[in-house]
Structure formats: structure tokens, C-alpha cells
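the four lines:
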Amino acid sequence: MYAVPELKPCHSFSRIAVLTSGGDAPGMNAAVRAVVRTAIARGIDCFGVHRGYSGLVDGDIRPMTSRSVKNIIQRGGTILKSDRCLEFKEQAIRWQAYETLTEMGIEALVVIGGDGSLAGARLFAKETGMPVIGLPGTIDNDIPASDDTIGFDTAVNTALDAIDRIRDTADSHGRVFLVEVMGRNSGHIASEVGIAGGADFVVLPETEVRSDTFQELSTERTRFEEKSALIIVAEGENEQRIHQIAGDLKQQGHEPRICILGHTQRGGSPTGHDRVLASGMGAIAVEFLLAGYGCHMVGVRSGAFFACPLDEIHLAHPESAAEQSFDSLWRLLK
Amino acid sequence: MYAVPELKPCHSFSRIAVLTSGGDAPGMNAAVRAVVRTAIARGIDCFGVHRGYSGLVDGDIRPMTSRSVKNIIQRGGTILKSDRCLEFKEQAIRWQAYETLTEMGIEALVVIGGDGSLAGARLFAKETGMPVIGLPGTIDNDIPASDDTIGFDTAVNTALDAIDRIRDTADSHGRVFLVEVMGRNSGHIASEVGIAGGADFVVLPETEVRSDTFQELSTERTRFEEKSALIIVAEGENEQRIHQIAGDLKQQGHEPRICILGHTQRGGSPTGHDRVLASGMGAIAVEFLLAGYGCHMVGVRSGAFFACPLDEIHLAHPESAAEQSFDSLWRLLK
Amino acid sequence: MYAVPELKPCHSFSRIAVLTSGGDAPGMNAAVRAVVRTAIARGIDCFGVHRGYSGLVDGDIRPMTSRSVKNIIQRGGTILKSDRCLEFKEQAIRWQAYETLTEMGIEALVVIGGDGSLAGARLFAKETGMPVIGLPGTIDNDIPASDDTIGFDTAVNTALDAIDRIRDTADSHGRVFLVEVMGRNSGHIASEVGIAGGADFVVLPETEVRSDTFQELSTERTRFEEKSALIIVAEGENEQRIHQIAGDLKQQGHEPRICILGHTQRGGSPTGHDRVLASGMGAIAVEFLLAGYGCHMVGVRSGAFFACPLDEIHLAHPESAAEQSFDSLWRLLK
Amino acid sequence: MYAVPELKPCHSFSRIAVLTSGGDAPGMNAAVRAVVRTAIARGIDCFGVHRGYSGLVDGDIRPMTSRSVKNIIQRGGTILKSDRCLEFKEQAIRWQAYETLTEMGIEALVVIGGDGSLAGARLFAKETGMPVIGLPGTIDNDIPASDDTIGFDTAVNTALDAIDRIRDTADSHGRVFLVEVMGRNSGHIASEVGIAGGADFVVLPETEVRSDTFQELSTERTRFEEKSALIIVAEGENEQRIHQIAGDLKQQGHEPRICILGHTQRGGSPTGHDRVLASGMGAIAVEFLLAGYGCHMVGVRSGAFFACPLDEIHLAHPESAAEQSFDSLWRLLK
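prediction for all of em together
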């Protein structure tokens, strides 16, 4: 459980709204529930915007009660639905959304989503002056300013579950498996899964694969058990990468199998960690609004929640050195 | 629990061996354990052949004790390792294997594997006269004479777990998902998963996909929730099939996503059903040997275990009409 | 997938209702969904009665649509809620329920529940003449006429998951664990879990525990690994039984630990098997009504669904010899 | 992934040993694997002591290789076995253990266990001067100096899985459930599970239960859905506590059900978080030895690993305010 900052409420609100945007992530429902319940506990009416920014544009906004978030903390996906709303990149559309909200008497907004969604939230807050708090909701853990994002822990465990299954076959057949996990620009899932899955190699987006990268792999029939290997490959931007690696391995005498874990990593009941994280972030989002923050994200740093300006979510801080941690651990454990 | 046939022991053996062959299937370890323990209970020494028929050829055969099968009933894969041994298609190699066994004083063999492995078992038994009992160990459930095979129930539940996750995203985004499950010649996993997963469509290997197959799917923005759909596609022999269907759906205005569940379906801890099935089949294999059977598979029909001649494992019996069951249920439930 | 009987529809209905009664069982939602969808496919309006027979008495009955059963096939519990309604044992109350139904134009009823609920269904059908089809929904698998009930497979897998965890500790500490599973009058869960969990002993409700029952258990410090043991105990009618056994074991020099799995066995997402079973039974319930059955349960025998008169659900048929199967397997595998 | 401290190696070792002691915790195997592999990477021979301190006394110590820790990262329990060794409280026995180790040429020890085990490690290091590094391995997370312990995250997720199941029944029947989770002196599991499980009440060891504690719970039949409630109770030191609460609730007109999760919380495959935590701690333990630490525990504080003197493991530091976090979150979310 991350440490919770002490905050002094100095503002008041009658009505706020909450939405989920971009790719869904396990724990989004727990976050929505926390926003709604904390708002109610603070005497604020809370509304749910459906389908992300699209619902702001369409006015698909409905009142939420304690009851409407009952029994959702354990569910994957998002009861508010989500969407990638390209229109919201236009300033005119953002003003239209602002009008929809103000017409309904809504004075502040909580946005749960990844970096694209938070970028939209930042523009909206800056231009319209409406207070907005963002929550990092993305399985990729690719918001540099925050050590943790809603959904990451669940995605890692889902990928691991698949990898534990694949290892059964790899070991039984003395075979090399290439397993692609999510992470287009980010190797966080691959790193965590690589260590936790006891992988033999991890190929991050920035890893340079060379002809001798996998030379330790045995192809000898007589060393059956050492023949099996698990290679974790981050999705990266090049869709063909895993197939190229497979091709290289074939040339070296292996019979690699490819598994692309894909969208299964997005769904499922959130882990305890993600439920507590999302619940904490949702509650703190409302507290941040009451404390006068209005263009910030709830982030995690050095084991504590903190208010990160939406302008700075792309700035990593040097102490939260997940990459270095991976490098130093990996060297020792392999 | 399937009914167990009454059998009269009329033979005796000093030593038997057991092997796992072909693709691994969850429950193989439970079957090996049952063969070993039943053999010991009947006063027979039991040996484990490593890496399937390859181990017969190489002489990679080791004595098994009650202890060597302790704590494996819940493990996926196979502690005996497995292999697809192409050499075993040659008669000379089969005779070589026979000699290896007889030199070690082994008088009978239990083979756990799919149809290819059982075909090898049949030839070996016919040619050499050594008693062989086969167990259907394959996640595909594609042995026509038997209603059930070791690993099928686990594979269905593993695929379902993935599908339950995918549905979270499909529902949250109003999106069409195409999910490929295993089954090259067999639609059993796809049928079971289609019904149990509440799928909207199931494409079996034999299904003819036409231009109007998916016409019920809504593309209207206003009917967001009805836009989501799950389409289960059996692997089939044409690797491009799922991509072709995705192409068709794109032309019709959908944005389908593809998930290929792949090898994750092979591994993992077996379900209770598969452990009981495998334990029963393993025990009965030894009982069949003692009762004088010698070129048979332990099959399941009408809720009971039975001895199926290895010559007849490709003959479906009309009562076990899984296909008809699927067709009639699917029509009603969709 | 069980074989589906061929049925000729000879009746028609405008409106039917469905309810869940007694202890909840995983798969009840899948069964409700199948009843509703099949009714709709057959042009019948379907109503959901809330809280079992209590809702019949109170008139808590609501129309169901295809949409109201969307996305429930994978959920544990019952969306219709359940209750043990003692009042329904009175004839006057049953007639009151009949009037409620006929006032709403409802012509037939599907009841999903255990033996108490099915006994109520039988009386209701006999007295009022309204056609009623029962579905065996109970984790205990204690309806003698049927080889399988909705929820049993899930409960077995849930118990096994707990037992696999407990074995980790038992093995690590060389310790004896007594694990109580559900089953007041029925040893089905205990038998299945005992075999699938690789237990050392299984105490069924009818097992006579004697002073020498557990004498094989080693207490020697030097045989650390053989000291660990798993003993599965069916709940039975005597709540103190497991504590008495623990007391006996203490006197023999063991330090047994007790785990009572309890209500966790009731809930959770149903397995693929239970979803397919429940979907099949729900669909067939409607087909049975249309074929003129009106005081029957959908049962499973010899691998096929069949219509079992509600008068005969307590009669076991000799072929479905789960008990004998357990006895003969257990002797060989232990 | 916690930040890894930079360390300068200034010592060297030829042989070290590792043991697991006290109650087993998921992730102990991952920690053992990391100690062994890091030692090998640093050119040190590593030995495994079986059955905790008992194995030190008995001399049950075996060489470990990269191979002997293959395929264990995902397994619950401990391959080294564990024991609570009361003898080790005697100084003479600790000197005997020291002699056993020095005779084998072992120069340092890594101890994985809870506070009792770490207290033994501290005495051993102080008295004999042999360098010892402790790892906090306990599901209870009750080492005040460290924010996290090996096994805690897994135990929380296991308890949550059970609670998600129980909620299905609680909701279906409108019933109150009391669920006891582990934690004799510590409410960490109960707090985390209470928030993540969406519980209605959490009773920590220090919570004072009064006559009006549960007065919000409805007993009205007409408010069926609000009747259900989940109350999480930490085990505490008073075994009867949960039964007393159940008695109170009965007097107030409820029909509470009791579930005691017990030992199932100890076992099972560790989560990704616990595998990474344990792998990191295991690797760093060896690095700490090489950097000259010799009476320390690897702890976690403010998102980073640190060297905590074994003398200070009972001192909480004010920033890691899990209790305050729980209190402030709980007030808002309930």
C-alpha cells in the first residue's frame, strides 16, 4: 500500500464527472468506484461519462450512485466503456465537451487512461480552466513520471500464467519458445515477466539482437533438457521482429515456436495490488480536486502517491530506476 | 467419474514400461503416476521411457518408484518428456525398440499420446506381439472412438480463461474479436469453448464462411454495446483463415482484432476432470494388460471406460454425437 | 458434451418463468441464460422469478430479454438471487404461487436447484398441474438419478486449487493436513478431490474411522518427506468429526493441521464443463416443456441427457456407479 | 520493481549456504534460486541447508547448482523444506551449527524466514561472527522495518480469490459473511484484502468491536440486496473472536456464515510481484555479503531495497505508513 499524502481541502464542488479512455486496463472499475464513493463521502454528486471522450462529445453522461459501483471492484474492463476518440484532438471539440459538462453543472473531471488520454486531459484543463485530475490507467506502465500504473501488475500476472503453461511444453519437448508480450514502446512487461518467468532471454524494444545473441542455446540432441528455452520479446514497433528472430533461430538449427499473448493481457479480474492502487488513486483524485489541484495526475514515486503536473508526466525521475534495476538483476539471475 | 469395467486378471507381468509421445497434454503426468502406482499395487516393476519412442530407440529407460511419481499429479507437461519420433515409422526401428525392451525384461508397454502415437503403438503391437495399451492423451479430443481424451477439459478451460479476459476488452470497446483455438482437424475445442464462452459465432474446420455469415453484426455507432462480438475460429489446416475472415469483416466496416491462443492451451495444471480421467485410464491400462488385452486403447463411451481395439480408434460410434449435440444446442442458445 | 435427445415439440407456450432456489451453484447463471435464450428462440416470453420460491410468493417476477442474460455465462452465483423458502412447504402457499403465475399468464416453470427445491417443484406440479421442469443445480452432485449436477465440476476444481496450495505447505514442513470439503450426505466431492488431489486418505460420510486407519502414516523424524500427508474429509453430518480425527492423530504423535474449505467451494466462475452442462440443461428444459413433459428433471445418464420423472430423482440406477468407480480406482492408485 | 542499491564488492567467499526457516511463503523458491544463481555468477559455490535450522544442526546440507534450481521459480512451498527449530534458541546448538558450516568450508549464510527466524539469524551472526544476510519471507508482512515481505502479495491474492467466490454466494442469498484471514499480530493481509475485496467492514487485531459496530447492516427482508455483507476479520490472537462476532450478529437478527481461509493462504504459485521481489532480494543478499554486510536483512523502504541491520528490523520508520494509508483510504472508500 503506497503512502497517502496529507491534503487540506480548500475547494468545494457540487458535481464532478469521471471517464475511462483509451485501451482498457484491469482496475479501471476499481478506480471508478473509488472516485464515485469518495465523491459521495465528500458530499459531491458524481457522473459517469460513457465511452471516454466520445461520451463527452455526445453528452452520454449519467449519474452514478454508491449502488451503481457495487460489485465491480473485481471486474476487468470498464463499466463506463472506453474509446479512442480522435476528434478530441480538435480544440473546437474540446470546447464542445466543456459546454456539455457546464450545462450539466459539472465542475471538474477525472480522466483514467494512458498517455494519449492524459495528453487530451492536459489540453482540456489548460484551455477551459476546468480542474482535471488524471489517473494513469494502462497495462504498459509507460508513464515515465509514475513508478506504477493501473493494470500493469495484472497484465504481468496474466502473461506469467501463460508463460508458466508454455514452459510445461517447452520442458517436455526440449524446445525453444518465443513469447511476445505487450509493450510497443515500453519493455516494462517484458522485463518483469522475464525475471518472474525465469526466462532465458529478454528482448526489449531497445535490445539489439545480433547473430550471437542466442549462441548459448544448445542444439545438441544429447542435451535434451538444456535445449528448452523461453525467450520473452516485447511487442515493439516492428511487428515482424519476433518472426525475424524465429528465422534466425531456425538457421541456427532450432525449431522455435512463437506465441503472441496479445489482448488476453488486457482483461481479467484485477490483482489485489491493482485494486488497492486503483482504489487509492481514485480516492486521492477527489482529494486532489478538493485541495485545489487541477491539471495533475496521481502518480507513484518512492513508495508514495504524489501530485504530478500533467505537463511533466513524460519526465522520468532518476530515482525510479526500473530499467537499471532490471539490468543489474538480470545480469545476476540469468 | 466414468464407470469402471469389471475385469478378471488372467495374465501376469514382471516388468512393464510407460511412455508419453507426441504433443504434451495436461494430465499425462497423472496418467503416468497411475500406471506406475497400479503396477506396483499389482506387484509389477514399472519403467519410464524418456522422450517417447525416441527413448525406446536410444534405450533411455529408467525404473520408476512410488516416490518418483510423488507430487506430479497436478503438474502440466510430462516428467517423461515427449517427442515426435519420425524414425518410429520405420519397421526396423520398431524391432530395434522391441529388442531394447526385451533385453531389459520388459514384457508390455503403455503408450500415452494422440492418434499418431497410437498408430505407432498399433504397428508395434501387431508386429512384435508385445502387449501394448494406448491411452488417448491429446488436448484436441480427436480420437473418434472415445468421447474424451486426457487434456481436453484443461485446454477448454484454459482457452475459456483467455476468452473471458478478451470479452472484458470487447465489451469495453464495442469491438469484434476473432479468437483462434487449437484443433487442426477437429472442432471440439472450438465447439465447447464457443458454447461455454457465450460466443456469437463459431467457425469449425468444416464451417463454410460466406459473405453473409456475419451479417447480424452491427456496425452502427449508436448501438455500441451490440457492436462487440466474439468469434471463435478453430485453427484448421489453413493458417490464413482467421486473417481472411478479419479481412472480410474489415470490408464490412468492422475493426476486428485477432487473438491466436496457441500453445498456452497445451500446458498448465490439469483440471480435476482430467486428473481423474487420466488416473482412471492409467489404472485401467494395467488392468487391461492383466486381463489379456494387448492391442487396445482405454476409451470412454456412454459414460464408461471400455477397451477399444487399436484398429478401431478411428471409428466414431453413432451415440457419442458431440457434433450433433453442438449443432442442436448452438441453434437454441445463440 | 452429453448427447442431446431428439424431441418432437407438441405443445406451445406464450409465457414461462425460471427461478433458482436453495444454495447457489456455479453455472446457475448459464442455465438461466439458456432457458431465456431458448424460450426466445422458440417464440416464448420468459420471466425471471427473484429469490427462488420466495419471489413466487411475493410476486417478484420480471420479464427477461436476450440482453438481460448477456455477459452472465461466466459469473458465479445467480442473478435471479436464491433463497431457502420454508413457507413453500405449505400447500396453501404453493397455490398462492400458482395464482401469482397464472395471473401473469405464465404457463410453465423451470426450477434450478438441489433436492429440496426439486421436491417443492414436484409437489407444485402434481397439485396445480402446471408443467414444471427441474434442473439439478447443486455442487454436491447428490441427486442419485443423475450422474452430474450443475456446479459439481467447479466445486471440485475450486477445492483442488486449495488442496494444491495446502500440499505446498504440507510438503515443505513434513506435516499432516486434514482438509474438509463440502458434502453433508454425499462423498462425491471428497472422492473426486481425493483422487485428483493425490490424497493419502479419503474419509467419506460412510467411512468408518478406526484406530488403525492412519497407521501407515510415518511419525519418524528421519523420514521427513514421508511424514507429510493429505487427508480429505467429507463434511458429513457430524461437525466435530474432523476435530475427532485430528485428536486421534495427535495421540499417535502427529501435529495435524485442519483446513475447512467451506463456502469458497460454492462460488466462482463456472468451469467450461459446468457452463456447457448448464447451457445444455437449460435449453433442453424448454424443449422438454414443448415435448409435453411436465413433472421431470433434466438428468444425465450414460453420457446422455434424459427426462427423469421428478418422482424418481432419488433412485440411483445401477450403471452409474460412481461409488464403485471410486472404490476400485482408489484401491489401485493410493 | 524496487530500485537496486549500488554496491561495491570488497569481500570474497568460496562457499556460502542458504536455508528457509519457519512458515513457508510463496516466493521462497524464487529467492533460493536467486541466491544460488547470483552466487554462481560471482564465482561462489552455494549449498542448500534442508529443513531450516534443523538441517544446520543435523548437517543436512547439499551442494546446489544452476540445474538444481531450474524450473522452481513458479513453485510454492520451499524445495529446501522448512521447520520451526526450537533447539536453535540454545546457544550451544548455534555453535554446533557454526562448526558444521565451518567444517564444510562455508563462510556465510543466507536465511529466508519470518521474524523468529531472523532473530535466530541475528544471534548466530553476533555470536559466531559468521556473516549472515536475512530475507523477510513471511506472508504476514509483519517485519516493521520493511514495507514488503516475500509471500505477502501472493497471500493477498489467494485470499481475494476466495473472497470473490464468497461474494457470489453472499450476493445471491443476501447474507452476511465473516471471513477470517491470516495475521496473528498483524492486520496487513486484512487491510489489503478489505480494500481490494470491497469489504463492508474490516476487523483488525487492534479493532475494538462494539455493540454498534455493525449497525449499518440491514436486516430488512425488503432490502434484500443491501442485506449481503462481507466482513474481513484478521486472525488475531483470540481464536474465538470471529465466533463472538458471529454471535453478536445473530442476536441482531442476521444469519452470518463463517469462513476461515487458513493455510490455503500460505501456498500456491507466487505472483509476479513476489517472484521479482524474491529474485531481487536473493540476488542482493549475495551482493550485500560481497559488500561487507554481515548482520543485515534485505528490506524495502520508499520503493528501494536497503540494508537493514538485523538489530533494527522491529523498528518501523514513519514514512512507510501502511496503517495510516489504510485508515485514510478506508474512510473514503467504504
